[in-house]
Structure to design on (221 residues):
């Protein structure tokens, strides 16, 4: 039972580089989310999706982009990495009637 | 934007002690969840509540929700080292987009 799978687990980027954080779920959930977690700041919503082809901004979307071409996948794109994007990123999914299922996170450092 | 506060921010107790952590919102919510997060992992759902005044028990954990649906508490009886982790509350008014508190970091010392 895979649940929500995130890759990579760790990544170091140089300022200005780009990368895609991958997220896939095998529970046929319509709702998917990207959060970032910084020490003492809790989880902040970056983007979310209510179904394939539909995405919307959360609290902190600047510097990120997402796409949802399939129900299973919800990649998060960083185009020009900045030190302020150093964080732990969590992907989550939900059926819409219960709690979230989270992935194990991607720890990103921008230097 | 919902204002969601959790207290205390940090808590360190001896094994066997009881503890209570709190979650308070600036406004009424329709649904609230509690999660526990262990280091290096994502949060794991503990409970969901939707009814004001509701009390739910999960083994040694008791979750209570205020009648006004603006606050919640989590009480742990006879804490064990395995209870160590970050406890997060999350609330929603839309049903599918949750706002998270900053969490209570609990350490249970053997």
């Amino acid at each position: 039972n895979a649940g929500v799978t995130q890759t990579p687990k760790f990544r170091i980027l140089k300022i200005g580089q780009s990368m895609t954080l991958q997220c896939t779920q095998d529970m046929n959930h319509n709702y998917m989310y990207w959060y970032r977690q910084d020490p003492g700041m809790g989880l902040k919503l970056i983007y979310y999706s209510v179904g394939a082809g539909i995405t919307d901004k959360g609290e902190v979307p600047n510097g990120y982009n997402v796409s949802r071409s399939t129900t299973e996948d919800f990649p998060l794109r960083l185009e020009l990495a900045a030190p302020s994007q150093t964080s732990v990123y969590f992907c989550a999914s939900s059926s819409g009637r219960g709690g979230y299922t989270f992935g194990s996170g991607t720890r990103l450092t921008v230097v | 934007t919902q204002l969601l506060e959790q207290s205390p921010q940090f808590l360190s107790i001896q094994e066997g002690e009881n503890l209570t952590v709190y979650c308070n919102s600036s406004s009424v919510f329709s649904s609230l969840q509690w999660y526990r997060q262990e280091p290096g992992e994502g949060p794991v759902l503990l409970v969901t509540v939707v009814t004001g005044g509701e009390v739910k028990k999960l083994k040694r954990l008791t979750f209570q929700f205020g009648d006004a649906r603006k606050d919640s508490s989590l009480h742990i009886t006879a804490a064990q080292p395995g209870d160590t982790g970050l406890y997060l509350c999350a609330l929603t008014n839309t049903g599918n987009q949750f706002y998270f508190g900053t969490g209570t970091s609990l350490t249970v010392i053997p």
